[in-house]
Every structure is written in C-alpha cells, then in structure tokens.
Amino acid sequence: MGIIFFVLGLCVGSFLNMYQYRLARKYKLIKNKKFKIDNKRSYCDYCGKQLHWYENVPVISWIIQRGKTRCCGKKLPIQYPLLELSMGIIFVLINFNYVYLVIASLLIFSLVFDLKYMIIPDRTNLALVIIALIFFRNNFLVGLGSLLFFFILNRIKIRGSEAMGMGDVKYSLFMGLFLGWPNILVAIYFAFVVGAVVSIILLIFKIVKKENPIPFGPFLIIGTIVAKIYGEQIIKYFFGVILN
Ligand SMILES: [Zn+2]
Question: What is the per-residue pLDDT for 162?
C-alpha cells in the first residue's frame, strides 16, 4: 500500500512544481515573454514546447535528462525532484488521512512558494482556511486570536517596512484553527526562535544580505507541522522543566 501513496505523492509533487511556475507567472513574479501560457497541458518552462509524457515522469525524467530540459538544454532546478520526493515520503507517512494529505500538499506548496517568491499565495491561504473551518471549527476562537495577534504584528513597522507580511497574517488564521490551544503557542514560539536563529546564521555567514528580507512564512509553516506532531510532548516537557 505504501508504494501507491509514494507514487501518488510523487505525482502531487510534480503537479505542485508545475502549478507553482504557472502561479508565479500569473502574479508576474517570473518574466518570460517568449511564450504565452494558455491551457497547454505541460510545457517547458524555458521555451514553451509541449512535453512528452516521458519528459514528465517525476524524479526519473530529471535523472535521465541529468537535470536539463530535453528541448532546449536549460538547467532544471534540483527543487523539482526534491519536492516530488518529499511529497512521496510525506504521503507514505500520512497514509489514509485524506484531509491531512490535502493540508500537507497546500502547506508544502506555500512553503516553497514563499521561499522562492516571498509571498504566501492568497488562494492557498484561502483553501487552507476553508478546510480548517470545516474540520477544525472547534478551534474558531484560537484562530481568531492568532489572526489578531499577527495582524497587530503586521501594523508594527521596522525601519518603515512591515515586519510581518499580510500573507503571514492570513496564514495565521489557518494556524490557530488547525492547531488549537495550546499547540498554537508551540508553533509561534518555534517560528520566532528558529526564525531568529536561522536569520542570524544566514546574516553572519553572508548567505543573505542585510537588505534582502528573509521570508517568515516557512518558519510559521514548519512550526505548524512541528506543533501538530510534537506539540503535546513539547508542552509537557516545558511545564515539567518549570515545575521541577
Ligand atoms: Zn525547452
């Protein structure tokens, strides 16, 4: 059974790669005037040529073509097979829980999109919130509280620019609904601490420059996943340390 979920995950990963490119072009985050995106099935990112099925097999095509497009020989980012493999593994781990399969796909999509383009797309946030309102509506107040907290952070400006983007604010509504109380605290704590540590490391080693902002969304998303899986253990441990 695992193999079926693995293959399904690979295919979803492949779809996410494709959709991310299309959405980025729609938002004009990628400028490529060479070809128009109409409703072509699958096409080359660089020259727009329609792809054969064998150029479109998750992971395997990338390996056979040695990370290059067959049509025009341009480099295909390592992100493509990595995302496909990650989705394969995530699907095997989640297994039959369909709601979580959809949420995981949307979360990983938002994470990669934010890393690349510094935006959590509205439509993935909206999809996440709708799913959370259906399946986790018991946590409605936590969602509202989380939204308010991040909205206030968004209003605080550091050196004239927003410390917290509106994409993060919208995402925080999902986070509160999905995690509930007190797991939401674990996610927020994780995001701020790990976000700060990673940002400092990236700045010290000059991997990013001071002018280039580091997206906060990926930390919120990883924090959400950590809190969902380990939240209770972390809280128990934390209170254990305080009480002893
Ligand atoms: Zn091409």
Answer: 67
Same structural domain for residues 186 and 163? yes
Q: Decide if pLDDT at 40 tops 80.
A: no
**Are residue 36 and residue 140 in the same domain, yes or no?**
no
CA 61–ligand 1 middle distance (angstroms)? 14
Ligand 1 mean position, distance from CA 68 (Å): 9
Average pLDDT of the segment spanning 40-54: 84
CA 74, 40, 70: angle at the middle one, nearest 5? Answer: 25
Cβ count within 10 A of residue 71: 16
For residue 222, give the nearest of 132, 122, 81, 111 by alpha carbon.
111
- C-alpha 111 to ligand 1 mean position (Å): 26
**Do 45 and 104 belong to one domain?**
no
Where does a domain end: 48, 67, 96? 96
Distance from residue 46's CA to the centre of ligand 1 (Å): 5
Q: How many angstroms does the Cα of residue 8 sit away from the middle of ligand 1?
A: 26
Q: Is the pLDDT of residue 221 over 80?
A: yes
Same-domain check for residues 107 and 29: no
Expressed in angstroms and rounded, the spacing between residue 112 Cα and the centre of ligand 1 is 23
* 7 and 40 fall within a common domain: yes
CA distance 15 to 159: 39
pTM of the model: 0.91
Q: Which residues surround ligand 1, an ion (CB under 5 A)?
A: 44, 46-47, 69, 71-72
